Amino acid sequence: MDAHLPRGEPEEQTSTSDPSESGLPITTPSQPEEWDWTEVLPDTKHIRLFRSVDWARTRLGPLPSWDHTLRQSTYQVLADSRPACLYWGPEYVAVYNAAFVAHAGRKHPGLMGSGFGDEAAFPELFPFVEPMLELARSTGIAQDVIETPMTTERNGYLEETFFTGSFTPIRNGHGQIEGLYNALVEVTKQLISERRTAMLNAISTGPQFTTRDVCRHVMKCLEMNELDVTMAMMYTIDHEQSDSILQLDGNHLGIPAGHQLLVDNQPLHSSEGLIPLCLRARSTSSPLTLKADKRFDGVEWRGPGGSSQTVSILPLVHGTRLYGFLILGTNPRLEDRVNAQLTNELLRMVSSLLASAVGTQESMKRQKGLERDLAKSDIKIQHLVQHASVGMVHILLDGSTVWANEQYYSIIGLTPRDASKDFSFFSQIVEEDLHIAEREWHSLLEGQENIQEELRMKRMYQPPVGDPVPATILIFGFPYIEDGQITSFMACMTDVSRLKWAENWQARLAQEAQEAKRQQESFIDVVSHEIR
């Protein structure tokens, strides 16, 4: 039950209403017995409290008058290790064990012997719970309560708890329902863990492109859990400036616009807002927990638990690099130890996200820089290729041209349009040399590192003297390999027609000179013979 409800006083007057009017059968009280049936109960503080209640002034009557069913049910509830409570009779008079005291909160000890709807019990809850109690009584079937949130007073403060239990009908020896047995099993740890895990999982699946994206995503995920995060603000570090500047993310939770805590674009050594405390947290690289003092006046704390007692400052550090700070209001209805578990998880996860985002940004900057350098290098290479005296070409395995410079088209004697056809280069080679070109092409396909060959073209070359002759090119080719596979060929070629003509001219002159010398020597031999 809600422990934050104002504590009531024990009922001072015995009800004069006739129990039979409620419709719930009540066993006629038995005659007092010679022995005190409560003496067998263990001597504990709670049992002494139970025995000290003036039961004669309650609807159940004095202890000696309780019937066998009520006594047995009382034995059971007081011995139960779970939080348990009997709700007996038409007014659902409470008898509960020591484990239930924490759930009774300020209603204890006045709740003992009071009806559920009495002022000393839970009159504000009775209209909501009564239909469930009546249904259990009328059907004889237990009514389950699943994962019900309850504010429990224990460990000196109001604590957020969750319980699963049921209201189980209790019958007497005649089969009549006399009361309900309410036993609870605490599932607080499980539900809080599930709630936090859902939030942490949502954070971990966020974008990691920029720090701004990460901040917005983290704050959006924190917003979904108002119980564990009662306020939040986040700083990131701008490392591109000479002095590290704290930049406040625009999405903050629970802090109204214009609040004194919303300090933006300040250096890390500033004395404004919470920045000095951020610097302290940075020095330890661990969460700094402080009490929510006057600086937090005006904060619109989220969640039903009221203002947070403590605030945690998380230095978002990965390795030795600081990426920012996350400032959180903690759950006021959980132990500091439990809150610390969440802040440590958030510290680890958000730091990793920011580190990844910054790493991605820096990697993209480096990549863009390399692309710019490569683009400049490509421009230089293209300039060189376009103005080189040699022809250059890139050909796919199907014979189509990927690119070529103007010198290539000039050398083979084709326009760019005609040269784009598959194996157009082979069509320009004279028939006698075509088998040489095909042989070298296949040798490259088979993995030869490079080829070098002279080929005669159908294009004619006009020498300085004499008749036109087929142009001659010197070609150097090699395969282009990607992922271990030959995907295309590249080649450089030079028009050596003039050189070949000059070589042939010189060879012919040498041959003619040699022939003239031979003829001269032959003539001399003939003349000498005649003279003799």
From TrEMBL:
InterPro entries referenced in this protein's UniProt entry, alphabetically: PAS-like_dom_sf
Feature: compositional bias, Basic and acidic residues: 1-10
Start and end residues of each stretch annotated as Disordered: 1-33
Biased composition (Polar residues): 13-31
SUPFAM superfamilies found in the cross-reference section: PYP-like sensor domain (PAS domain)
Protein name, UniProt field: PAS domain-containing protein
